[in-house]
Amino acid sequence: MFSYLRRLKLSYAAYNIFQPKRLAHNLPIYARLGLKKQYFSPISSRDFAHLPANAGLPTVPPLAERLKALSAFQQLPAASQANLLAFEDNGFAILPGFFSDEQAEGINQDLASLIATQQISLRYRNKFMFAFRKSARIRAAGEGALRELVAALLGHETKLFQSINFLTGSEQRTHSDSIHMSTFPLGGMAAAWVALEDITPDNGPLHYYPGSHKLPYYLNADYQNEGNDWLIGDKEYTEYEAYINQKIAEAGIPKQIFLARKGDVFVWHANLMHGGEPHTDKALTRKSMVFHYFSQAHICYHEITQRPALL
Ligand SMILES: O=C(O)CCC(=O)C(=O)O
User: Which strands sit side by side in the sheet containing 307-308, from one edge to the other?
Assistant: First the structure.
């Protein structure tokens, strides 16, 4: 019964009716694209099937021009600049030492105090969600230079949507964020992952597949999870993960593991396949944080649950 209610699109729409401000962002784009949707209506890739791939997006200057115009970019070391300039080819950019040890420690202290004062607790097994709403230091890390750089990568005004802090490895199986934080046109999101201590092979490092962002975006229809007019799809998330596993194997892309140093940042593309390695030494922590960003020029939503994103 509970699982049926969770699949009922009306349940989500009923909740969203009370969120007009946070859902207003999609309305002008729905209107421009001729989509007959209310701010609270369910939405998924099926609604865009008749539209050209880049429908409604303004033309923007090439990536190099966008980055070089930015003082946050000009101030970076040459290696980080080169990594950002190669973002469209690689699907990721590593920014070594983007944050100082002191900044990383400040964030660790803020998280510890949010936990101690019970202002935040674990969700989804090992995630501290949305700490940036409660810590000015965490918000400042996700806004400012990092958001400006991500906005230049996306080519549009960009909003910090979500932060997730970890004290242990996520151990998440390989996925593309586009099944969770989805956009139309495709590609209007990016994430920046921050090492808040040194990462070793034993404490669940991030893994990724270079160039995998050029694979198709695998969405609900690809694993028969579209549902119907009333219900979202009934597939378990493990079925999505198995599908991605198979697609990566078919593509033959070798996995890379990011042994980050404290303060390093790893920015990934909306469709870069990535996940977390097993955290084998439970005596160790894996302090890290990830920011997810949405372009404001795109329709922003959640493909799996077919909900508009609450910005
Ligand atoms: O931190 C990790 O291990 C992976 C996090 C992740 O996959 C995500 O936030 O999308």
Answer: 182-184, 299-302, 307-308
Q: For 70-88, how does the pLDDT look when each residue is reduced to its tens digit (9 = 90+)?
A: 999 999 999 999 999 999 9
> Looking at residue 221, what DSSP letter applies?
G
User: Residue 22 to residues 7, 98, 266, 273: CA-CA distances in angstroms?
Assistant: 22, 31, 28, 29
In 3-state terms, what secondary structure has residue 242? helix
pTM for the structure as a whole: 0.97
Residue nearest to atom 3 of ligand 1 (CA): 276
- Report the nearest-CA residue for atom 10 of ligand 1: 177
Q: Which atom of ligand 1 is nearest to the CA of 290?
A: 9
Q: What order do you get walking across the sheet with 92-95 strand by strand? A: 92-95, 265-269, 189-195, 288-295, 158-166, 127-129, 122-123
pLDDT for 3? 67
Asked if residue 271 has its Cβ within 6 Å of ligand 1, the reply is no
Tokens, residue 128:
């501290």
Ordered alpha helix ranges (H), the chain: 2-7, 9-16, 20-23, 27-33, 63-68, 71-74, 78-85, 87-90, 101-116, 136-142, 144-154, 237-251
Which is the closest atom of ligand 1 to the Cα of 166? Answer: 1
For residue 80 and ligand 1, the question of a CB distance below 6 A is answered with no
Q: What is the pLDDT of residue 10?
A: 82
Write out pLDDT tens, residues 268-293.
999 999 999 999 999 999 999 999 99
User: Among all chains, which residue has been given the structure tokens 């019970």?
Assistant: 118
Beta partners for 112? none
Question: Closest Cα to residue 39, out of 17, 64, 57, 67?
Answer: 17
DSSP codes, 28-73: HHHHHHT----TTS---GGGGTTS-TTTTPPP---HHHHHHT-HHH
Domain 43-308, CATH among 3.20.20.450, 3.20.80.10, 2.60.120.620, 3.40.640.10: 2.60.120.620
CA–CA distance, 249 with 151 (Å, rounded to integer):
32
